[in-house]
Amino acid sequence: MSEHDDPRDVGLPEERRIEGIPARPDEATQPRVGVDSWVASHEERRQQATGIGGRIQDWWRRTPPIGRLLVFLVPAIIFPLVSNSGNIYRYGILTLIYALLAYGLTIVVGFAGLLDLGYMAFFGFGAYAYGFLASQHTGRHWQALLVLPVVVIATAALGIILGSPSLRLLGDYLAIVTLFFGQAFVLFANNANRIDFPFFGEVDLTGGAQGLEGVDPLNFFGYKISTNKGYFYVALIMMVLIVTMLHLVNNSRTGRAWRALREDPLAAEVLSIPVKRLKILAFAFGAAVAGLIGCLYSSVQTLDAPGDYDIGLLITIYAIVILGGAGSLTGVIVAALIVNGVPELLRNPNNGRYVFYLGLILVLWYFLKSWKRLLIVLGGALAFGFVVYGITSLVWDRGTSGAPVADPETGANWLATAISHWMVLPTNATQIANWAYFALVLLIMASTLMSGWWRTLVLIPTVWVAAFAWENLLFTPDQINGPTRLLLLGTVLVVLMNARPQGLFGTARVEIV
Amino acid sequence: MQHVPDLISIFFPPWKNWSFFWDLTVSGLTRGSIYALIALGYSMVYGILKLLNFAHGDVYMIGAFLGWFMLQWLGGPSDPFISGWFVVACMLLFAMLGCGVLGVGIERFAYRRLRDAPRIAPLISALGVSIILQSSAQILFGTGFRNYQTETLVGFSIHNVGDVFFSTVQLVTVLLAGALMVALTLFVARTRVGKAMRATSFDREAASMMGIDVDRVISVTFFIGSALAGAAGVMFGLVFGQIYNLMGFLAGLKGFTAAVIGGIGSIPGAMLGGIVLGLAESYATGYLPQGSTFHDLYVFLLLIIVLIVRPSGLLGTPAIQKV
């Protein structure tokens, strides 16, 4: 046994070696660089998952990037062949467009760490520019191969113009200036059909609240794309191109500089990284991607309507970027599937009910982290529901006379029937459901403040009230497509930021103080 | 020489029609004092937490709705149980109290855990809260407009000082906003809690080492800021009549703009910024091309110009980045 095999040898001279320090447990396997690296890798080791999830993670980490892309690409190529046109649009094209937008936003938010809340304006600008150059409304019909580069360059230029003044400021100002810019764009698009320019007279730029209608389909080398299937593949090709580009950029000199900028702008500047130029580059790059996707979206919709580029879409895309973990390329696709797919499933009441109760159980499991308590909460909520139902049916006639929301074509399925024997479903429930919603918010807040068995106890009525509010208020046809969807997305943002800021697939940042 | 007034009026539009100018000024002051109240909340929270509270505009919207509900509970605008101005006082108090509690709750549940997180995390959490409040309002109150019917409630009378005409409600709004601002200034300058707020805003960690309960100070800040936003919401309802669930978004942006123009983190700056912004918006509506449609765009341009010319705002001190 030579001198260097001594586990306590940390490179110190013989006489200064401290006696009594136990050997590191993993010293035989770890490279002996010094104690610091062992301490620094603490976070990483703590995060190493075990079990099936851990094995999948390990496998995923070892797969080369091409393989990872194929995992998503192969099902995506098959999907349109086995699905109908409506589903290709709702689940396929929309998911791809969301994912593409989220990739564009990843450049700005994930790589460079700039909070750009006006991103939808670039998307809208691209869409309107495409419509302006190629649509029935304006009477111009430029070739797509000409329009796309023009629009991309114009959007990038707009990104530079907007970025330059904002980047003189502290990071937070950027957020609100860009948010304002996004709103200004919507306002402009809504009203720019009758601007009275000096010398030109009245000019119709955007078609006003009606939008630009009759936008030309994409047209490459004389081949006109007219079906959803065709657009799906165009979007898929765009995505492969953009993902590849992002992957390469992320591992390039610029990508590393962006990451340095994101982690600590001041330190980056001290290292003579051209901070401002890189910020504007990220801004312009993200804007250009948004412009390109705008062209695609515009031609898919054959219409540019101002409402499409409003805050709702912004929240959706942010939810995708944040859920996937800012900066993670894999996460974006998965998150886009979740964020677009779940609300689409919710549209059908029978599917929506499965999604809701499954989601509820998953969330409970995540927060309770114990099978026993999960069973107690669920069993308690069931019992609580039956007791409340029994009492209500005795004392309040109207309380149990309503019917659960069901699919208008196939009627109530087994779950809806079961729910109608457990949940109090009053007719004309609006008023009481509003109070239930209020109570739900209070109960959720109370349960986050408590811990241990108290939390488990409070969760029993919380689950029941959540189900009540869902069945009687949030799930009603008026709410499900609009506000409930936004409510869920907003909740995802807040909860995720508080519970797991790095998102589903992001890596936790080591905060060095 | 007849053309001289024409020439002047091209560059200085009020020249030909002063009464229009005074109308715009009065409406701008009214708007401005509402913006100033919103801006104060933004500015105070930013001063202490360095956080842009996106949800602030939606707290203001909730305040307007709370005021409306109080009005209904007191018997509605046409037949209240008590006299009109007393109803207004109740509405203001209720909205301020409700919004204050809401603000404290938002801080407790959405921001507190993120105090030392990377800067982007609380911003996104705030965005989430904003969306939650907006869609909750849509779920609970619907998308329709609610009307305060101020004329039925307190009557409608016009007063004038020379050429300047204004209504009682406008006068009350401006005076009340001024009174709230004076009260806030005194509170921050003279009381113990105010001193603690200044200390926390100066250096949170040092303040906590000096025995200041930072959590409590931040809660108080959120309470006061949100209560002011609630008051602003009720005032908006009283002056402009109609409230709806998306009104908070743009108002929040304007409040922020006002805070930036005045110098974010500075309390007198927020007041000045609000008034400047209100006047600018009003004059833009009156004098700039297509102002009634695009006044928000002009406000946005004003924000950009201020940020370029004087990034620290009118009364703000240039930010020194500490390492």
Can you give me a brief rundown of this structure?
The complex is a heterodimer of chains A (513) and B (323). By secondary structure, chain A is mainly alpha-helical.
Report on the architecture of this protein.
- The complex is a heterodimer of chains A (513) and B (323).
- Chain A is mainly α.
- Chain A folds into 3 domains: 3-57, no CATH class; 87-347, Orthogonal Bundle (ABC transporter involved in vitamin B12 uptake, BtuC); 351-480, no CATH class.
- Helix content of chain A is 67%, strand content 3%.
- In chain A, the strands form 3 sheets. In chain A, strands 1-2 form a two-stranded antiparallel sheet. In chain A, strands 3-6 form a two-stranded antiparallel ribbon.
- Chain B has a domain at 31-248.
- Chain B is 73% helix and 4% strand.
- A two-stranded antiparallel sheet of chain B has the order 1-4. In chain B, strands 2-3 form a two-stranded antiparallel ribbon.
- In chain B, a hairpin with a 2-residue loop joins strand 2 and strand 3.
- In chain B, helix 7 packs across helix 8 (192-202).
- The interface between A and B is large, with 56 and 54 residues.
